[in-house]
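Database export, one record per block. Field names are fixed; values are copied verbatim from the stored entry.
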Amino acid sequence: MKIEKQNAPAEQVRANILILEARFYGELCDELCLGAIGAIKRAGATWERIAVPGALEIPGAIAMAHETGLYHGYVALGCVLRGETTHYDIVANESARGIMNLTTEGLCIGNGILTCENEAQAWARAKVDDMDKGGGAADAALAMIRFQRLMGRKAAEADAAMAQS
C-alpha cells in the first residue's frame, strides 16, 4: 500500500544532526538514510552519518555522542526482523526503551528503527517513495529540536518577566 504524502515546505532549523545507523540490513539502511538526509537537507540542517553494530548499540552511541556537545539531535535508523527466537523482542523493545529513556532526559531523537515481521514490510516502510520512515524519523528529531528551543525561549521570557516584577 502506497502512502501519499504532502511535502509542505520544511521549516528551516539551524542544527547539526547525527544519523546513527545499525547496518545489519545495509541496503535497507541506505534507503532509510536517503529519506533522513533528504528531510534534514530540506530543513537546512547539517548532518553526519555513523554506523554502529546493531540496534541495541544505538542508544549508547547517542549518549556518547551527546556528551561531545557536537549535535543538536539524533536520528536512529535500522531494522529488526522477526526471526525464530525471542531475540527480536529483546532487540526491538530494549532499543526503543533506550531511546525513550534518552528522550525523557531531553535529547532530541527521531526513532527510525523498523521492527517488522518480514523484509517486504521493512522495504515498504524504508522506501523514500512509499512510507519514508527515515525521513519521518529525521522530521521528528527536527521537530523536537524546534520544540526544545521554543521551551527555552518561553523559560527565558518567564525569567525576564519575573525579574521585572
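Remark 1: The chain has a mean pLDDT of 94.
Remark 2: The longest strand covers residues 73-81.
End of record.
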